[in-house]
Backbone:
């Protein structure tokens, strides 16, 4: 189900090149009335790690910050510039749970929105099945309040606060059932 949101161009009114006023060029771009610069507003790349141990438990995290503070999540976050999605998911896992990713396999992607500092960021969230170097010493870091292993049969999609993660959990669980 797609949510209808205000177009991001509503927040970007001025050209980063000359400071002139943007005009809507089409549904994908704005054009500066002064210098002619055309800006395409594309989604930001984000990654999500799906880590399942040999006991058939999913590694879940509790969000320490808004949006959706206190709800369940999976490790992940925005990709940095000049970073592949695989590098991004590995960095995020290390930052959030203190473990190195030894293998990352792309599963699927979902569009999402993420409210950051009052601005709705459009993202494309890439899900990766990840293996980590050890399941023994996982601890919460960065923007994670808590990490825990949850048996797959106890995972409830509604406990996850972000839309794409909730949808991703539904897909993952349905794939495991088939």
Residues:
């Amino acid at each position: 189900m797609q949510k209808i949101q205000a177009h991001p161009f509503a927040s970007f009114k001025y050209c980063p090149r000359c400071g002139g006023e943007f005009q809507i060029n089409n549904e994908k771009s704005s054009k500066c009335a002064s210098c002619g610069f055309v800006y395409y507003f594309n989604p930001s790349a984000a990654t999500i790690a799906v880590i399942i141990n040999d006991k058939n438990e999913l590694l879940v995290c509790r969000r320490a910050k808004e949006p959706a503070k206190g709800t369940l999540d999976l490790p992940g976050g925005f990709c940095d510039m000049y970073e592949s999605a695989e590098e991004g998911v590995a960095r995020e896992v290390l930052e959030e749970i203190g473990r190195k990713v030894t293998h990352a396999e792309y599963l699927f992607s979902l569009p999402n929105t993420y409210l950051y500092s009052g601005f709705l960021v459009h993202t494309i969230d890439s899900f990766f099945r990840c293996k980590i170097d050890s399941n023994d010493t996982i601890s919460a870091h960065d923007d994670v309040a808590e990490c825990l292993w949850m048996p797959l049969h106890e995972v409830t999609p509604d406990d996850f606060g972000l839309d794409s993660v909730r949808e991703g959990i539904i897909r993952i669980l349905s794939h495991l059932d088939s």
Summary: Helices lie at 85-97, 163-177.
